[in-house]
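Slides due. Your pick:
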Amino acid sequence: MSERITTITFFKYEGFRNKWWGLGMMGKAHSFLAEIEGIHFYKLLGSGKNEGFNPYPDWSTYSLLVVWNDEADAERFLASELMNLYQEKTAETWTIFMKNIVAKGMWSGQNPFEQSSTLNSDISLIAVITRATIKTQKLLSFWRYVPTSHLQLRGNEGLIYSNGIGEVPIVQMATFSIWKDKASLMNFAYKSREHHVAIQKTRQLDWYKEEMFTRFQPYKSVGTWRGVNPLAAYL
């Protein structure tokens, strides 16, 4: 059990100059983050086109995933000079605070997500990150099929938000999604034929060099996305 929390912040840029700045920060932000106290693990992530599981990047959307030693460290970061700089350049930012429920697998050779000791039984929301590094020789077969397994995400009544994210386009990919409750997530995971087949193919074709599945409890939502706070009605 742990007091660590995880945040994921999405940044939306408008205009060529701001988009170019956002792309540059995928490299430059490392030096800033190295000076931030309380970070246990972080990843700077790009986004799939049209907020989907797509090999083509969306040059207007990026995200920052951080595992913090505790919530106070995360709160200080939101008020930091680095976040103020992001705020000046972005049209919108949205940060979700999460506590880990379960994490299986590895991310860059480690599992940084420890099960939280302070889960709230009154919160039904579930957030999920599935992440993998795809074997080079398996890239073609992976991209031929896997995007179709995510088609039923669109219009799913139990889904609040989803986005394809990743460290390296095409090769290192992930999905982030927020569901109204566990039942909604399970309904998609096990009753969607396309998703079920994708799970079978993952085992049969051995697509991944490294993979991780994590489940979180979102408990705080700060900022806006598409003009609203997507979790305001749930928290």
